[in-house]
Specification:
The structure holds 2 protein chains of 2 kinds. By secondary structure, chain A is an alpha/beta fold. Chain A has one domain: Thiamin diphosphate (ThDP)-binding fold, Pyr/PP domains (Rossmann fold). Chain A is built from 10 helices and 7 strands. A 5-stranded parallel β-sheet of chain A has the order 1-2-3-7-6, with helices on both faces. In chain A, helix 6 (about 160-170) links the parallel strand 2 and strand 3 (about 175-185). Chain A starts with 5 loop residues before the first helix and ends with a helix. Chain B is α/β, with parallel strands linked by helices. Chain B has 2 domains: about 20-185, Thiamin diphosphate (ThDP)-binding fold, Pyr/PP domains (Rossmann fold, 3-Layer(aba) Sandwich), CATH 3.40.50.970; about 195-330, Rossmann fold (3-Layer(aba) Sandwich). Helix content of chain B is about 35%, strand content about 20%. Chain B has 11 helices and 14 strands. In chain B, strands 3-2-4-5-7-6-12 form a 7-stranded mixed β-sheet, sandwiched between helices. A 5-stranded mixed β-sheet of chain B has the order 9-11-10-13-14, with helices on both faces. A two-stranded antiparallel ribbon of chain B has the order 1-8. In chain B, strand 13, helix 9 and strand 14 form a beta-alpha-beta unit. The longest helix of chain B has 15 residues, at about 20-35. The two termini of chain B are about 25 Å apart. The relative contact order of chain B is 0.14. Classes of the chains: A alpha/beta, B alpha/beta. Chain B: This is Transketolase, central region. Chain B: InterPro entries: PDH/Transketolase, THDP-binding, Transketo_C/PFOR_II, Transketolase-like_Pyr-bd, Transketolase_C. Chain B: Its cofactor is thiamine diphosphate. Chain B: Belongs to the transketolase family.
Chain lengths: ~290, ~325
């Protein structure tokens, strides 16, 4: 990883805007799916797929690649879009999301899309899988060759399995494991603090022997610095708690929990696409 | 008579027949596969003695992973390790794994197609005094309904060892069902063993069987005792050891039904959804014959000794004999 120039950041902003545009188009076509989390994580996925990850989309089974475990599988539109834009499969294919026979299942399935490290959807089990991968690399002495990244949500921290994984990774000092929590404060039934309070979330992770970094999940520089800091930790697993805005990029969707699992209708999608188009224009001319 | 081709234990009907817990064979087998393949890892949820994983843990401490009492994590960490090329065996009591972590096994192991062997020890009512909370009587049903999952329930310690050796080499996820108590040794090292293959352990000296008895797990021994007693009163039976419940040996089951025209199934499990149900599914579609089921009849267990419970819940030799007599009367021809 190199220092992020303003030029590079502009490039990422444009890419994230394209990914958001694709997310809207995919969800409109699919007529179902998860809008808020997908849009909210677009900046993070852009930075990882175009800057942070050690991967080769033309050689997806490259042994030394970093491993990406998506735990909250329902935000897969952003994963699929980031993968398509980075060259894993044609961007055209994004339109097949949630259709019969598609490689792009409503929740990711690696039997259909073999470039995935895991199938996911049921919440709370991704972190443990990532911890298992990290431990396997420790046993084999491969833990300095690559990182295991686990993208997960705040809502899924309601799951007991999540905390079993947190405890286990802390015990085994898995510093090759980096969890990125999408702290967007919403879940299906409402605000996370109302549904099942998670605060004090930083203290919780620290108490389980993790190294905690908090960042603005829409600030590329912040995020990049956070990952660099994570790579320097030598005796603990690392969690990056990324504060994000659900539905980020579309004013009508931003911050409203109702968009967790709802796709835009035609009119809403048209407005959203217009908004993204205007934003792209502003970024390019800034 | 015992099938002479299978080299079964010739002393199995002796008073002093050698006995060993089925789980013991797993422990010995795991140690052996650990020696043969350094990718084998063992994960345990705070039951290293009971599940017999201690043999592996002592020899290969770096490849043994203590999970604590966290069965959901047990299954999911195993899945992650498998994705990096490890061959994980993960063990707990069957009541907790797959009892508590079924969805994790379904999604992160079977659906995810990660080769993990889920080892459920202390299965069945025979776990005894611990009572109903600890008696897994639903695990065969839970596991055989999952696609891409082999389900294996060995009849004795030696077969459990062989199953462990084979399951370390197969590509598919698997469930290995083990029992706690010592039970008689039925097979020998030379007895053939193959996943997906059912074997006839007992057969009439001459002529055709009037009833086919299909057993799995430790009760296979009771089925053999019943067959011997039935022979003495002139009823000819065949006893099949169906240790591989998935994949199921349809051909052998249909052949047995065609010969005997009546079947009795024997398992230490709920009748609903268990091995007997799997037999019924095969036969009703291919060669329907009357079937009687030996197993637990939609009840939870309770505390007691293994022998007391087997009797109380009607899974003893005398119950198998009664079932054979009943199914004989139901035969149409």
């Amino acid at each position: 990883m190199t220092f992020l120039s303003d030029e590079k950041i502009k490039e990422f902003k444009i890419k994230a805007n394209e990914i958001r545009t694709s997310i809207i188009l995919m969800l409109l076509e699919a007529k179902s799916g998860h809008t808020a989390g997908s849009l909210g994580m677009a900046d993070i996925f852009t930075l990882f797929y175009f800057h942070i990850l050690k991967h080769d989309p033309k050689n997806p089974s490259w042994e030394e690649r970093d491993r990406v475990v998506l735990s909250n599988g329902h935000i897969c539109p952003v994963l699929y879009a980031a993968m398509a834009y980075s060259g894993y499969f044609p961007i055209e294919e994004l339109k097949t999301l949630r259709k019969l026979g598609s490689r792009l299942q409503g929740h990711p399935h690696r039997e259909y899309l073999p470039f995935l490290e895991n199938s996911s959807g049921p919440l709370g089990s991704g972190l443990s899988q990532a911890a298992g991968m990290a431990l396997a690399d420790k046993i084999d002495g491969k833990d300095s060759d690559r990182y295991i990244y686990c993208f997960m949500s705040d809502g899924e921290l309601d799951e007991g399995n999540s905390w079993e994984g947190v405890m286990f990774a802390g015990k085994n000092k898995l510093n090759n494991l980096i969890a990125v929590v999408d702290k967007n404060n919403i879940q299906i039934d409402g605000n996370t603090e109302k549904v099942m309070p998670l605060e004090p979330i930083v203290d919780k992770w620290r108490a389980f022997n993790w190294y905690v970094i908090e960042v603005n999940g829409h600030d590329f520089k912040d995020l990049d610095e956070a990952v660099k800091e994570a790579h320097e930790v030598f005796n603990k697993p690392i969690v990056i708690i990324a504060h994000t805005i659900p539905g980020k990029g579309i004013k009508e969707f931003e911050g409203d929990y109702k968009w967790h699992g709802m796709p835009p209708n035609k009119e809403q999608a048209e407005n959203a696409l217009k908004e993204l188009q205007d934003l792209a224009f502003k970024i390019k001319n800034a | 008579m015992l099938n002479p081709k299978l080299k079964l234990n010739p002393k199995m009907f002796n008073q002093d027949v050698e006995q060993a817990p089925i789980r013991k064979g797993f422990g010995i087998g795991l140690l052996k596969v650990g020696e043969e393949d350094e990718n084998v890892v063992a994960l345990c949820a705070d039951l290293v003695e009971s599940t017999q994983m201690y043999l592996f843990a002592e020899k290969f401490p770096k490849r043994f992973i203590e999970m604590g009492v966290a069965e959901q994590n047990l299954a999911t960490v195993a899945s992650g390790m498998a994705s990096m090329g490890k061959i994980p065996f993960c063990s707990s009591y069957a009541m907790f794994s797959p009892g508590r972590n079924w969805e994790q096994i379904r999604t992160t192991i079977a659906y995810n197609d990660r080769k993990v062997v889920v080892v459920g020890s202390h299965a069945g009512i025979s776990v005894g005094p611990d009572g109903g909370t600890h008696q897994a009587l639903e695990d065969i049903a839970l596991m055989r309904v999952i696609p891409n999952m082999d389900v294996v329930s060995p009849c004795d310690s030696i077969e459990a060892k062989k199953a462990t050796l084979v399951l370390a080499k197969t590509k598919k996820p698997a469930y290995l069902r083990l029992a706690r108590e010592k039970t008689p040794i039925i097979t020998t090292e030379e007895t053939p063993y193959k996943i997906g293959k059912a074997e006839i352990y007992w057969m009439p000296d001459v002529g055709l069987a009037q009833v086919g008895i299909i057993a799995t797990g430790s009760l296979t021994y009771k089925a053999l005792l019943a067959a011997k007693e039935l022979e003495a009163i002139g009823i000819k039976t065949k006893v099949m050891n169906l240790s591989s419940i998935s994949p199921i040996d349809k051909e052998a089951i249909i052949a047995l039904a065609k010969e005997s025209k009546a079947i009795v199934t024997v398992e230490e499990h709920q009748i609903n959804g268990g091995m007997g149900s799997a037999i019924a599914e095969v036969l009703v579609q291919n060669y329907p014959v009357p079937i009687e089921f030996i197993g637990v009849e939609n009840l939870f267990g309770q505390s007691g000794t293994s022998d007391e419970l087997i009797k109380y819940y009607h899974m003893d030799v005398s119950d198998i004999i009664l079932a054979v007599e009943k199914v004989l009367k139901r035969k149409t021809s």
